[in-house]
Amino acid sequence: MSSQPLPLLMVIPTGIGCATGGFAGDALPSARLLAAASGCLITHPNVMNGASLYWSDSRIHYVEGYGLDRFAVGEWALRPVRRQRIGLLLDAGIEPELAQRQIQVAEGCRATLGLEIGPVLTTDQPLEVSLEQGSSGVSWGRLGCPDALLRGGERLKQAGATAIAVVARFPEDPASDELAAYRAGSGVDALAGAEAVISHLLVRHLQIPCAHAPALAPLPLDPQLDPRAAGEELGYTFLACVLVGLSRAPDLVAPGSGVIQADQLGAVVAPAGALGGEAVLACIERGVPLIAVANPSLLQVTAEALGIAPSVMSAASYAEAAGLVMALREGLSPAALQRPLSSLEFLT
After folding, report:
1. I need a labelling partner for 191 at 20 to 30 A (CA). Which of 14, 140, 161, 179 fits?
2. Are 229 and 23 contacting, i.e. CB atoms less than 8 angstroms apart?
3. Residue 187 has pLDDT above 80, yes or no
């Protein structure tokens, strides 16, 4: 294989119920495979966060969704770092015992993983997270006090934090049909849309790496739990994966000053029915090869719907997508791997 990495963007939108990537870090195996195939994978927390589980890989760059969009558009670049100093922002609405669980996770990550964490700050008002669901079933949410979030982020950055982990108290209904469906593997992550709102606000305001973990009470044991949801039920918090991801998240810098620029992208990989996001559309506009993977979700924004089907490479799985990435990295035409092989085009 070519020794030169092929920078690759992997996008799996959050809160749309993707079969792969719609649960607790269940897209991590696919991300690791694509990182091995490309040598340089840029993806977002939704792909990497497995609640109590995580995987650190120097070839994978952890970039929050808003920052990933700005990177794909070409407004920001990425500068890899050896470590980030992670400020921890706790929602004032978290009960004392549950807040102490978050502190213990941070202390454990310092002692066991050697992460640099601190300072810790509690918001000056509860964030008042509310959850919503669109008519399509896609999850989203609101913040009652977004200013409290931004004030807390500003204080942590001023105190020397170079990345911020946020833990907000989320509403919960353990008896809800939606939660039961999610735990059984057929529902949508009801928290994901609101989580995206929180991290987008902070990254847009501060231009430093940020990611979110919800504060929730542990759920009763469910012997029929879907394996994809199991990572969320191993402990008291979802914070460990966020701290690990942020610990080496690249700096978000001006174009020209980063090591990884958008014009270096060799391909973008996204679910075949979710091609309407800003990052994917920006890549399409700039002629970056698009690999659309069969990964069912609530959306049907396909290459056919966008009128770009002839220029898109289709993959039946992320394993097949990795093969296409390897072909691109080797300078092979993916069309040469298909049968029947089409005839040469003649100009008249």
Report:
1. 161
2. yes
3. no
